[in-house]
Amino acid sequence: MSTALLFTLFALILIGLTVFRLFFYRQWRRNRLLSNAFPDQWRALLKAQVPLYARLPLNDRKQLEQQVQLFLAEKLFYGCDGFNVDDTVRLTVAGHACLLILGRPYSDYDEVRSILVYPDHYQAEQVEDDGTVVSVSREIRAGEASGYGQVVLAWAECEEGAVNPHGKHNVILHEFAHQLDYLDGSADGAPPLSGDEAKHWQHTMTEAYEHLRHSLRHHHASWLDPYGASEPAEFFAVLTEAFYQQPRHLKDEQPEVYKALYSFYRLDPLQLDNAPTPDTIVKIV
Fold this sequence. Notes:
By secondary structure, the chain is of the alpha/beta class. About 55% of the residues lie in helices and about 10% in strands. It contains 11 helices and 6 strands. Strand 5 (about 145) and strand 6 form a beta hairpin. The longest helix has about 30 residues, at about 5-35. The N and C termini lie far apart (about 70 Å). Mean pLDDT is about 85; it is low at about 280-285.
C-alpha cells in the first residue's frame, strides 16, 4: 500500500473520529449510561426527598429517573466548609432540578457543570461598580447560579424545600430556574422562547412584575415572595418556586402567568396534586 493511500486512510479515520466525538459521542455515552438499571436505593431517596416524584405517572417517573441518572453521572458535586455530599444530597438536588426539565429536553442542562453545597447559609463577596467607585461587600446567601455552569446551594435550605413541598421557598428550584434563564445567554427573566409564546410571555410577565412592584411600593401585602420584585430574573425564579410548590394559589391569583409557565415547563403541577399515587392504584379485574 502506497504512502499516499496510507495517509489518506489515516486522515479519513481521524476525521471520522473527530466527527463522532463532536456530534455523536455525548449521545452514545448517555445511551450507555441509561442501559444501567436505576438503583432501588435512589428510587427510595427520590420518594423521600422529592415529594412530587411519587405523584408522577409511571412514564414520567421513568423519564425523571433517566434525567437524574444522567445528571448524577455528568455533574460534579463539591462539599464546601467540610460538608459531606452523600447520596441523599445528590438525589435531592438532582431530583428537584430535573423536575424543571421533565417536559423539556435534558440538553437544557448541558452547560451545568458543577454544584457546590454548603451545610448552611454562606458568605459571598458582592462587587458593585458605579462607574467611578468599585465597592466590595459580603452577603449571606442561601444559593446562587452563574452563567458559567455553576450552582451554589445551602443544604439547610434544600432540606427545608424538600420537607415542606407546599411552602414558598425551594432554593433548588429557584437556582436551576436561573440556569434555564441563562440558556439564551443572559439571566433577564425571559428564557428562550419564540413566536406567540414569546409575545405572551413578555406581555404577561411584564404586567405581573410591575403589578408586584406597584403593590409593594404601596405597602400592600403580597402572597408571592417580595424578592421577586428585585429584578425580572428573580421574578422568574420566584414564580418557578410558586408554580411547583403553590400551583393552585398561583393559578387563582395569576392565571395568565400560570399559563405562560405551563407552556414553558410543559407540565401541569395541578394535575399531579389531584392524581392518585401510581403505587396505590388498584386494578379491578
